[in-house]
Design goal:
- By secondary structure, the chain is of the alpha+beta class.
- The chain is globular, with a radius of gyration of 20 Å.
- It has twelve helices and eleven strands.
- A hairpin with a 4-residue loop joins strand 3 and strand 4.
Length: 335
């Protein structure tokens, strides 16, 4: 058992196929692809062994620190600050005392998969703490997906966990048989040159938007099913463009993605997102991609390098925050 562990996991920006990663939606359209990229906005976990059975939980994001006599006392607690931790601790059931510290660099409700990244960080930390082998990406994602469903009490997708676990540009293929993961190294792509992440200042709630889509799909809503099939096609084109190095096609693909996504529900967009979209399109060389389930959070602007500074200035003038972030392969900062 390791005495002190530090884990850093990247968050992600989804480029295409979001929402379709949620079971059983991808089955409704005969399988689907999701494309996302890990970014250097990290979740961080520190895990230290302590003497005796006492357990301390410290959330730097919530400003919460509390020590419990033992794990059973913690698991019996109804404090809302422990909602994120209890399913994971009940899964691992460490027998010794520990001090768990968590933090996230992602703004709250940013649409970057911050909670999923944090779950992966905690899982990796406890596997190391208990001297257990870390499973494959697919097994880890299956566990994380089920644990976060307990945390959120809502259906969850799986795409967010793969970049947190593996880093890089992830092309995920969802079939009736399994999920196939193709990881493309960031250095072989021009992603960093065109990548600009903007925070709207308004948090979103991914569970609400995606759950509304799921309910409509189960009810066989014709408009929603048509939009899901169109988004499936967009994701296929995105994956093909990435694999064939046809990056110049992405702005037009993102325009189609936006069009079909708001056909699922208008709540995927917002006044802030529409304002950022207008700023990006003034140059004629940029396009936006809503991050996560939208309605707020972050927006990716795919921009030509020569107009980048102009777009940054305009966004800041209108009160939006530029996140100094870039696509990244898996961090090597774990210890």
């Amino acid at each position: 058992m390791t005495n002190e562990i530090k884990i850093f996991s990247p968050t992600r920006v989804d480029l295409a196929g979001g929402t379709l990663d949620m079971w059983p939606l991808y089955n409704f359209v005969g399988g689907a692809k999701t494309v996302n990229v890990a970014i250097d906005v990290y979740s961080q976990v520190e895990l230290k062994k302590t003497s005796g059975a006492e357990v301390t939980i410290e959330s730097r994001d919530l400003g919460y620190t509390k020590t419990f006599a033992n794990l059973d006392v913690l698991l019996a607690s109804t404090e809302p600050q422990l909602t994120l931790y209890k399913p994971l601790l009940a899964f691992f059931k460490p027998e010794s005392g520990f001090h768990l510290i968590t933090a996230s660099q992602s703004p709250v409700g940013a649409g970057l998969g911050g909670s999923s990244s944090l779950v992966i960080s905690m899982m990796k930390a406890f596997y190391k703490f208990l001297a257990q082998p870390i499973p494959s990406s697919h097994e880890a994602v299956q566990i994380a997906h089920n644990l976060e469903a307990q945390i959120l009490n809502t259906p969850t997708g799986t795409q967010d966990y793969y970049p947190a676990f593996s880093g890089g540009l992830n092309i995920l293929n969802y079939t009736a048989k399994n999920i196939q993961q193709n990881i493309v190294p960031i250095g072989s792509t021009p992603l960093k040159e065109h990548f600009l992440l903007v925070y709207t200042g308004k948090a979103h709630h991914s569970g609400i938007n995606n759950f509304e889509v799921l309910k409509s799909a189960v009810a066989k809503d014709a408009k929603v099913m048509a939009a899901l099939n169109s988004l499936k096609d967009v994701a296929e084109k995105t994956a093909n463009a990435c694999l064939s190095n046809e990056w110049s096609k992405l702005p037009e693909i993102f325009e189609h993605e936006y069009k079909y996504r708001i056909q699922l529900t208008e709540h995927f967009s917002s006044p802030e997102i529409r304002q950022i979209k207008e700023i990006s399109q003034k140059t004629g060389q940029s396009q936006v991609k809503i991050c996560g389930a939208g309605g707020g959070g972050c927006v990716l602007i795919w921009t030509a390098p020569e107009v980048r500074s102009r777009i940054i200035k305009e966004c800041q003038t209108q009160g939006f925050q530029i996140l100094n972030s870039q696509p990244v392969d898996l961090a090597s900062k774990d210890s």
